[in-house]
Amino acid sequence: MAPRKRSTPLSLDPTPARIDDQSKAEDLSVNTVQPGATLTDNLGHGVTDDNNSLRGGERGPTLLEDFLLREKISHFDHERIPERVVHARGAGAHGYFVLEKSLAEYTYARVLTEVGVNTPLFTRFSTVAGSRGAADTARDVRGFAVKMYTSEGNWDIVGNNIPVFFIQDAIKFPDLIHSVKPEPHNEIPQGASAHDTFYDFISLTPESMHMLMWVHSDRAIPRSFDMMDGFGIHTFRLINKAGDVHLVKFHFKAVLGAHSLVWDEAQKIAGKDSDFHRRNMWETIDAGGTLEWEFGVQVFTEAQAAKWDFDVIDPTKLVPEDLVPVQRVGRMVLNRNPDNYFAETEQVAFMPTNIVPGIDFSNDPLLQGRLFSYLDTQLSRLGSPNWVELPINRPLAPVHNNQRDGHMRQTINTGRVSYFPNTLGGAQEAKAGVNGYVSYPERLSGVKQRARAKSFADHYGQARLFWNSVTPVEREHITKSLAFELSNCTVRDIRVRMLDQLEQIHPVLASQVAVVIGEAPRSKNAVMPGAGQDSAAEVALLGTATARTTASGKLQKASGLSQLENQPMSPKGRMVAVLVAPGTDAAQVASLTAALTAAGAKGVIVGPHLGTIAPGIEATKTFGNTDPVLYDAVMVPGGEGGARALMARPEAQTFVTEAYRHAKPIGALGEGAEILTASPVGRLLRSLAGTKDGTAPAQGVQNLSEVGAMSLTAGAAETLATHG
Ligand code: HDE
């Protein structure tokens, strides 16, 4: 076993004393095979033949004494641990958090007050419902779990990419999850909420309506991990040196902005590359890139919160950014892939109870339940209380306590003392306010009862606020998604009950869904506005409905909810398919891919076969092994022979047409434009331009050949998606 520095959190902290200890400890847990190393069994015995078991005679029975065979097979038999009961499918990366603005006014947590200090971290993204082998692009909430190895112990923000949750009380979590998981009699469907049991439960659980709107929005089908925001969801407390308390919500804002796939793409990607998200993160980091978020906080006081018409400890409610802006105070950067998926990503154990001095919990009843669940689940999943010794879970802060023994104990505790109080050299208590955790001394009083607070009673106000705050095209995606899922429910009563719920959110939403699932819109106001348009009728209706918006801080519309308004836009991280064939202009391919790289995007050469297509053009993907859904844009370079060869390939035309259907930019250089004019895209543009006979090129296509590139509008692409 060759010592190697770290497989787990790399120290980037300029105060390295504690880090050295950690690196030493980890030398023993990292195994890097040197080239030519001798193969051994688990106990260090050299293995001379790893291909044949020990037999009595060349064709005889295998002998029980073959300890090498038994050890190898037995270890294999035990290779699996239970997958997470939720969030089973995930991918993680190492990185760091750096604070740019001190929050000392609100907290004494070192991680939130020491500006410029890099805190190592490990972040795992996940889907919730699917099992470990499910597809990345399922419509689902994404787990967004961050473990910071701070100098005061581990701090985990175990959040999601959606700022609210389905339920208000932890006691409903097993019901929620049982309803969304594959149905127990036939284990169908995998990683999908479009089935009876989920909507049976949801339609009887109005508190889930706000979250449901988010789950049917494009947030639930993100383009990549680094194009989604993260939310701590619950309200937490910050306590400063003077003992003052503030309330806080934690945010991670994607530097690239929150961007999504469209549903048709997401479904197809699930088949074409079910590892789409994890591959993207892996390849970005492997190529030397980073994934980045701004870390932000919404800080407010109890007094402010008391004035709002919703309860800040109700996890189905968010605090609109118009009431409390998000202050951006730090940055999370992911820059290192795990060395070993199982050892790190699978064994990482997040717990909302991992908290540091200066930060405390609120009484959010969902959070309170989670404070029990995560330790319990780690014991079952990782099998022993010593899971805290796994390299990925160990803190960088020193550990000294009197906990001992148990299954698979790694630490060799020396000395006689394993108790407190002691005088024989054992650990002594930390000092409050210096190096120890102190709970906020909240005054508690109340009657013991099983009850839901009255302040949690409104279930539709923020759902409606969300609907009102997103753009028409986002609203259209929500209605289509709901119609898709409900149309997959086989029990009519459930579908109808859901319509009753949607009606409470917004009559337009309910009417649009009703029509697709074959029900008459019940509202007397029911109008069917044009797709994605704010028709006069819809605007009128919206007016009626927003007047009823409640639990929203009296807002009719809130900023920060739409993904199309005020999101950063950047070519960074985007994948562009460059279609080539023999005869394609190599110089254009070279300058195009160089320009894409310079912009932070990646050009991928797609040709009829792998390898050299023409001098200077190397294809890394073929029309057969890749697909337009895997790219953000398509470019067709010029070169007469190349254009002709591409025209002769139906797959190339499909590439362009499919990209167009999904409203992606398509560009062409020189003769490359011919494939666009010949494809259904060209035909559509000609028909839009009124030249139905197809003889005269449409304006857009003419411009394309003259200017050399064009970007198609989402509106035109939607036309093709709807009609074509
Ligand atoms: Fe979790 N959740 N959860 N959850 N959760 C788990 O812990 C649970 C909730 C979240 O990448 C489990 O280690 C209860 C909200 C993430 O490893 C389990 C309740 C939020 C991850 C568990 C909730 C989350 C988990 C399963 C209701 C967003 C994946 C495996 C009271 C704020 C972490 C594990 C990773 C994982 C329980 C609700 C986020 C069973 C009881 C709300 C990101 O302990």
Look at the structure and name the CATH superfamily of the largest domain: Catalase core domain
In which range does the helix fraction lie?
A: 25-40%
Distance between the termini: 61 Å
The Rg value, from CA coordinates, equals 29 Å
Q: Characterize the overall form.
A: globular
Low-confidence stretches: 1-7, 12-26, 526-534, 691-724
Sketch the major β-sheet. Answer: 10 strands, antiparallel
Beta-strand proportion? 5-15%
Summarize the model shown.
By secondary structure, this protein is α+β, with helices and mostly antiparallel strands. The chain has helices spanning 17-27, 67-77, 173-180, 196-203, 209-215, 263-272, 276-286, 302-307, 341-346, 365-382, 461-469, 472-487, 492-505, 507-516, 536-546, 586-598, 640-647, 650-661, 673-678, 680-688, 699-707, 714-723, and strands at residues 90-99, 118-127, 142-150, 153-160, 230-231, 236-239, 245-254, 291-300, 327-336, 359-361, 575-579, 602-607, 611-614, 617-619, 621-622, 633-636, 666-668.
Description:
Keywords: Heme, Hydrogen peroxide, Iron, Metal-binding, Oxidoreductase, Peroxidase. This protein has 724 residues and is α+β, with helices and mostly antiparallel strands. It has three domains: 90-389, Catalase core domain (Catalase HpII,  Chain A, domain 1), CATH 2.40.180; 460-546, Up-down Bundle (Hemocyanin, N-terminal domain), CATH 1.20.1370; 575-723, Class I glutamine amidotransferase (GATase) domain (Rossmann fold), CATH 3.40.50. The protein has helices spanning 17-27, 67-77, 173-180, 196-203, 209-215, 263-272, 276-286, 302-307, 341-346, 365-382, 461-469, 472-487, 492-505, 507-516, 536-546, 586-598, 640-647, 650-661, 673-678, 680-688, 699-707, 714-723, and strands spanning 90-99, 118-127, 142-150, 153-160, 230-231, 236-239, 245-254, 291-300, 327-336, 359-361, 575-579, 602-607, 611-614, 617-619, 621-622, 633-636, 666-668. Strands 1, 2, 3, 4, 5, 6, 7, 8, 9 and 10 form a ten-stranded antiparallel sheet that branches. A hairpin with a 5-residue loop joins strand 6 (236-239) and strand 7. The structure holds CIS-heme D hydroxychlorin gamma-spirolactone 17R, 18S. CIS-heme D hydroxychlorin gamma-spirolactone 17R, 18S (HDE) binds next to strand 2, strand 3, strand 4 and helix 10.
